[in-house]
Amino acid sequence: MVGKYLARPGLAIMALLAAGVALYSLRYYGALTDRWLDVDPKIHAVITQVPVRALTHMLIAPVALLLGPFQFFSRLRAKYPKVHRGSGRVYVAACVIAGIGGLATAPSASGGPVAGLGFGILAVLWVATTLGAWRAAVQRQFALHRLLMRFSYAMTFGAVTLRLQIPIGLALGFSDYSAMSVWLAYTSWVPNVIIVALYSVTEALRRPLAPATV
Ligand code: HEM
């Protein structure tokens, strides 16, 4: 009961943070016309090195970040099921395209191979989980669909937790984003996945058992 009321403000805060990070990412459109607005010099170098891969990722991933939270509002889902399906398809397409772009960019990550490995693992899990969630919806396995979409968005939301962790890294003495990205490539998403796993297990344990049929 309490969880139900806490869930809505939680979702609203998640949507606001996601929108903030997604809108801030619009500055990467400037790269298409060689205008670099508040872009970290080492990320600038990554884009210069692998422009199609990096920009495919950086310009499309924000679409998934922005749409994701609205998919979890149960009232919206119940009232406008067609909107949920349409926006869900765009979310899946954005994750798959941006995930492939992220995977292709990972070997050039500004933080070096250890950071690249973290982002690479994330990309593979992100695409696989999202495609699994989509397949479950098509097969009308809605409990599995909901569970996998939670995991998918936990990874998408890594874009927000990564940026929230940057001030902490600076306070800890890292000189810039690239220096701390060896850690961020893991700490930005592993805790999110653990939180979703714990939440889902707790929810399953709380649910009353279905009455025996035999
Ligand atoms: C969840 C799977 C994701 C993977 C595997 C991934 C992977 C990567 C990689 C490898 C880089 C280059 C980092 C570097 O050179 O240090 C990068 C940067 C970036 N990614 Fe992602 N990313 C993911 C999610 C997202 C999402 C959801 C967004 C939405 C905003 C996003 C937006 C960006 C942006 C804007 C950059 C440029 C660096 C920055 O501004 O911090 N990524 N990503």
Topology:
Elements: H1 2-24, H2 41-49, H3 51-71, H4 74-79, H5 81-105, H6 113-138, H7 142-156, H8 158-171, H9 177-187, H10 190-206
Helix pairs in contact: 1-3, 2-3, 3-5, 5-6, 6-7, 6-9, 7-10, 8-9
The chain binds protoporphyrin IX containing FE (HEM).
Summarize the structure in words.
- With 214 residues, the protein is mostly helical.
- The protein has one domain (2-206).
- It contains ten helices and no strands.
- It has helices spanning 2-24, 41-49, 51-71, 74-79, 81-105, 113-138, 142-156, 158-171, 177-187, 190-206.
- Helix 6 packs antiparallel against helix 7 and helix 6 (113-138) packs parallel to helix 9.
- The mean pLDDT is 94.
- Bound molecules: protoporphyrin IX containing FE (HEM).
- Protoporphyrin IX containing FE is lined by residues 21-22, 25, 28, 43, 46, 57-58, 61-62, 64-65, 99, 102, 105-106, 109-111, 115, 119, 122-123, 126, 155-156, 158-159, 181.
Order of helices and strands: HHHHHHHHHH
Estimate nothing, just give the exact number of structural domains. Answer: 1
Number of helices, counting only DSSP H or I runs of 4 residues or more: 10
- Report Rg: 18 Å
Q: In percent terms, what proportion of residues is strand?
A: under 5%
Sheet/helix structural class: mainly alpha
Helix content: over 70%
The number of strands is 0
Q: Average the pLDDT over all residues and give the rounded result.
A: 94
Largest sheet: none
Overall geometry? globular
What is bound: which ligands?
A: protoporphyrin IX containing FE
Residue stretches low in confidence (pLDDT < 50, at least 5 long) are: none
Termini separation (Å)?
31 Å
Keywords: Membrane, Transmembrane, Transmembrane helix
Transmembrane segments: 12-30, 50-70, 90-109, 115-138, 150-174, 180-201
Pfam families: DUF2306 (PF10067)
